[in-house]
Amino acid sequence: MPSPASPVAFTVLGVEVRWYAIFILLGIVAAVILVRWLAKRRGMDADFPIDAAPWVVLAGIVGARGYYILLRFDYFLANPGEAINLRLGGLTIHGAIAGGLLMLAFLCRRQRQPFLRWCDFIIPGVALAQAIGRWGNWANQEAFGGPTNLPWGVAIDAGNRPPPYAASERFHPTFLYESAFNLLYAVILSWLVFNAPRLRWYRDGDALWIYLILYGSIRFVIEAMRTDSLYIGPFPAAHWISGGMIVVGAAMLLVRHRWTSTEVAGHAR
C-alpha cells in the first residue's frame, strides 16, 4: 500500500488543506446522513441530528484534542501554540466519544429528547465516521504498526519511521484494520437500530453498549500492534480506556436487560 506523496491535498489562497482534515470532514458528513436516515426510518425528529450535529462535533473535537493534550502535557506545556493546530493530527477517538456523548446528553435534556434512543441512532454514525476518518492517519503516515512483509503493508517515509525500525520500509496498516472493523460495526449497528422495534430483546441504548464492547475489544488488540502509543503508567493509554469501555458496555447491557426483564416479569404477575 503506497502512502500519499504529500499530506497536503491542495492549497487555497496560500492555506494548505490537508487530507487529514478532508477525511475527518467526510466522516462527519457521512455520519450525519446515516443518523438522519435511521431517525427518519424510526419515526424520530429528523431535524434534531442537523441541529445537534455542530455542537456534538465541536464537543467531540474539544474532547479529542483535550485528551491528546493531557497525554502529551509536557510537550504542549513547552509548545502552547501547537495546542490548537489540528492540521497535523492529534485527535483521540476516546476523547471524541466522551465529549460528543456529554454534549448529546445536554442537548437531549434541554430539548426533552430520549438520550439513549438518540445514542442508538448516533453510534452507527460514529463507527462510520471512524472508518472514514482513520484514512487521515494514512495521509499523515501515522498510527501504523510494526514492520511487515505482507502485501498490504503500508510504505512509510524514512522521516516518519520509529528509530528502532529505521531500516524497515513497510509496516502494518493498523489504521486500515481499525477502519475495516469500524465499517463492519457501522453495518451491524445500523441493522440492529433499524430492526430494533421487531427485536423483543432490544432495549434503548443497546447499540451504544454493544459498540463500547466491540470497539473497546478491537482497539485493545490493535493498540498492541502500534508503534506510536501514548502511555499512562506501564500500559498504553488506549488499553486503559478500551478496557474501561468493555467493562462499562458489558455492565450496562447486564443491568439494562436484567432490570427491564424483572420489570416485565413483575407486570406479568
Please, could you describe this protein's structure?
Helices cover 63% and strands 6% of the residues. It has 269 residues and is mainly alpha-helical. The protein has one domain. The strands form 3 sheets. A two-stranded antiparallel ribbon has the order 1-2. It has a two-stranded antiparallel ribbon with strand order 3-4. Strands 5-6 form a two-stranded antiparallel sheet. Helix 2 (47-71) packs antiparallel against helix 4. The N and C termini lie far apart (62 Å). The model is unreliable at 264-269 (pLDDT under 50).
State the gist of this model.
The protein has 269 residues and is mainly α. It contains 9 helices and 6 strands. The chain has one domain.
What is the helix fraction of residues, given as a range? 55-70%
Task: Classify the secondary structure makeup into a structural class.
Answer: mainly alpha
Gyration radius over CA:
20 Å
Largest sheet: 2 strands, antiparallel
- The run of helices and strands is EEHHHHHHEEHHEEH
C-alpha end-to-end distance: 62 Å
Number of strands: 6
User: Total helix count?
Assistant: 9
Strand content: 5-15%
Domains (count): 1
Low-confidence regions:
264-269
- Average pLDDT: 90
Strand order of the largest sheet: 1-2
Shape: globular
Question: Key terms for this structure?
Answer:
6 strands, globular, 6% strand, 63% helix, 269 residues, single chain, two-stranded antiparallel ribbon, 9 helices, disordered C terminus, two-stranded antiparallel sheet, mainly alpha
